[in-house]
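Before the break, one more example. Copy the sequence into your notebook; we will annotate it together after we see the structure.
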Amino acid sequence: MPAIAALFLAAASLSAADGAALDEATRAIFAPYHDESSNEAPWERAIWSSEIQHLITHWESVQPEDEPDAMNDGDWLCQCQDWDSKAFRMTITSRKALEKDVAEVAVDIVLFRQADPRDAFLTFRREEGRWMLDDMYTEEYSDGIKAALRQTIVEDEKLRAEQK
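Here is what the structure looks like once it is written out:
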């Protein structure tokens, strides 16, 4: 095996400890969906990478006050407005390293009994020793949550400028 290929594989492989930490982070992200009393919005949770947290702060500063925009009319993580907490299921289907300190976890999400699973691909970035959610790709967010936040910020800023 060429040395470069060996270095790439070493840098991109997940250790057992990283795999376990990613599984734990993923389960923690979806744990509130098993609790009927949970009502914290996804963007208010301490699960996001510093880049996404910065985007969320910017978005919150420009979003319309009296109407929904593209990001605040549903739940980003379950891609839904409603779910059955007793039937909710999240299954990790794969995990892989993308580069040093960046990994992807694929999950299937089931919201209701007899419902088809929804696919989601979560990108995690290790920050200060913790795996933080750095992006999420779903049918609704095919370009990722980062891209959706950036686009919504542009739209909300334009709307705000038009209202002045």
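Strands lie at 89-99, 102-110, 118-127, 130-138. The CA atoms of residues 59 and 153 lie 5 Å apart. Try to locate both features in your own notes.
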